[in-house]
TrEMBL record:
<dbReference type="GO" id="GO:0008270">
    <property type="term" value="F:zinc ion binding"/>
</dbReference>
<dbReference type="InterPro" id="IPR036236">
    <property type="entry name" value="Znf_C2H2_sf"/>
</dbReference>
<dbReference type="GO" id="GO:0003677">
    <property type="term" value="F:DNA binding"/>
</dbReference>
<dbReference type="GO" id="GO:0005634">
    <property type="term" value="C:nucleus"/>
</dbReference>
<dbReference type="InterPro" id="IPR003656">
    <property type="entry name" value="Znf_BED"/>
</dbReference>
<dbReference type="InterPro" id="IPR052865">
    <property type="entry name" value="Zinc_finger_BED"/>
</dbReference>
<keyword id="KW-0479">Metal-binding</keyword>
<dbReference type="Pfam" id="PF02892">
    <property type="entry name" value="zf-BED"/>
</dbReference>
<protein>
    <recommendedName>
        <fullName>BED-type domain-containing protein</fullName>
    </recommendedName>
</protein>
<keyword id="KW-0863">Zinc-finger</keyword>
<keyword id="KW-0862">Zinc</keyword>
<feature type="domain" description="BED-type">
    <location>
        <begin position="5"/>
        <end position="63"/>
    </location>
</feature>
Length: 133
């Protein structure tokens, strides 16, 4: 599965210029800022961050705060996703309990054993053996 690209938080302060997609317009002062190149592969957010840092320090401080908060949330999310939960004792005991005689899974197993005995010409006593070496 391909992960989607994350959008930089700096874009909450800029919009892409309608006339030239290699430029971004500052939402605060309206200045056109280069996105770093003429083709899409060269686009970056460095110039946008520098613009905020030099001309709008309050917005830049807010951006840094938002980025730090997002990093904490991402770390917490990845920690939750990476940590497998341990099964409870009840769920383990439930999983090891044998099926009831008329349970659908029990019926499938009985049918498969019956077919094995019939098709392989095995004696009925095979089901009493502990292992089938």
């Amino acid at each position: 599965m391909v992960a989607s690209r994350r959008k930089s938080l700096v874009w909450q302060y800029f919009t892409i210029s309608a006339s030239d997609d290699s430029k971004a317009v500052c939402n605060k002062c309206g200045e056109n800022i280069s996105r770093g190149g003429k083709n899409r592969k060269a686009f970056n957010t460095t110039n946008l961050r520098k613009h905020l840092e030099t001309l709008h320090p309050v917005l830049f401080a807010q951006l840094l705060k938002d980025q730090k908060q997002q990093e904490v949330q991402d770390a917490a999310r990845s920690s939750r996703e990476a940590t497998p939960s341990q099964p409870t004792l009840e769920s383990v005991l439930e999983a090891t309990k044998p099926f009831a005689f008329d349970h659908p899974n029990s019926r499938k197993i009985h049918k498969a054993i019956g077919e094995m005995i019939a098709l392989d010409n095995e004696p009925f006593s095979i089901v009493k053996l502990k292992s089938n070496d």
